[in-house]
Design goal:
The protein is an all-alpha fold. It is about 70% helix and about 0% strand. The protein has helices at about 5, 20-30, 35-50, 55-60, 105-140, 140-155, 160-170, 175-185, 190-205, 205-215, 220-255, 265-275, 280-310, 310-330, and strands at about 70-75, 80. It has a two-stranded antiparallel ribbon with strand order 1-2. The longest helix is centred in the last third of the chain and has 37 residues, at about 220-255. The protein is elongated. The relative contact order is 0.13.
């Protein structure tokens, strides 16, 4: 084909199509992953349920803290009266053994606490980790050594042991969900800092960053204008994978009795009270455990999908694999 046919006609004003933006490319890659899209829908529904918890419980006509002793069979040790844990038109998922508190209300309000703590802890981790990682990567040898050794100490400390120690010494009057989020974030930022430091060292050797340094730009300006855009993809990917981990940590802390305290509902705290009822009232254990399982699975699959969509090489391999499957079916 001649070059004349490839060139736009004179006077038509035709121009070459503009390259797709980064956000558009990301969405295009993410759409090829059905599992990630399903996970995104599940996560969106869970967040919506958590935000609308007061409205949902108002529609049901219950709240998470009211006791209903009339719905408990005291002669059988506190087992709910009725089938399937006392499920009825007034109590959609039944009631809690011994107390008679509404399980649906506690489950949806527990979603607010569990998801809120996980997102807040992840934000703290990323904020500290990015700051320390960039400072270590851009700093001189002494700064890098000091921050790197401090990061190694944080990474080497057992997360659960340190969290338990910090939770035990804080006064009881401090809001427990806020405290749990702060503790998780403050003791688990080391891995984020290591990833950001390694990426910063790689990026600062590139030509455009070297040109900015030679132009006399300050370290803060270089970090804000040149490095942060390049760090966005790995940081977002790692943050998406941290959220399900933090949900599990919050549940474990609450299960051990040092996390969220009653009467505040959280999935981990519900599991703490349900461990002795798994035979007499199995729904009391299965509901929070199932909610945790679905949430962690959906967030993990979504995080893996985000990682693939932000990595052009992984997205290319995914497209090739999808094309080969379609050809095989044909």
């Amino acid at each position: 084909m001649s070059e004349a046919l490839l060139a736009p006609e004179a006077g038509t004003g035709a121009t070459a199509p503009a390259p797709a933006s980064g956000a558009r490319q990301f969405w295009r890659r993410l759409r090829t992953q059905r599992a990630a899209l399903v996970a995104a829908v599940v996560v969106a529904l869970l967040v919506l349920v958590a935000l609308a918890a007061p409205l949902l419980t108002a529609i049901e006509g219950q709240d998470p803290g009211t006791y209903h002793p009339d719905l408990i069979d005291s002669g059988r040790g506190g087992v709910p009266i009725g089938s399937f844990g006392g499920i009825s038109a007034e109590h959609w998922l039944g009631v809690e053994p011994q107390t008679g508190r509404d399980l649906f209300a506690r489950l949806v309000h527990g979603a607010r606490v569990s998801l809120g703590v996980a997102f807040a802890a992840t934000f703290v981790q990323v904020l500290i980790g990015v700051g320390v990682g960039i400072a270590a990567g851009l700093g001189n040898r002494l700064v890098d050594q000091v921050l790197s050794r401090a990061t190694d100490v944080i990474v080497a400390m057992p997360l659960m042991v340190l969290s338990l120690a910090l939770m035990a010494i804080v006064p009881s009057g401090f809001p427990r969900p806020v405290l749990v989020a702060l503790v998780i974030g403050l003791v688990a930022w080391g891995s984020t800092a290591k990833i950001v430091r390694a990426q910063t060292i790689t990026l600062k050797e590139l030509d455009y960053v070297a040109a900015a340094r030679l132009s006399g730009w300050s370290t803060w300006r270089i970090a804000r204008r040149e490095l942060l855009p390049g760090l966005a993809a790995p940081v977002i990917t790692y943050a998406a994978l941290l959220i399900p981990l933090n949900i599990t940590v919050e549940a474990a802390l609450s299960f051990l009795g040092v996390g969220v305290k009653p009467p505040t509902a959280s999935w981990g705290q519900m599991l703490t009270s349900a461990d002795v009822w798994y035979q007499a009232a199995p729904q009391y254990l299965l509901l929070p455990a199932g909610a945790l399982f679905v949430t962690v699975l959906a967030l993990t699959v979504l995080g893996d999908g985000i990682r693939t969509a932000l990595d052009p090489r992984a997205a290319s391999r995914l497209r090739i694999g999808t094309g080969q499957k379609r050809e095989g079916r044909a």
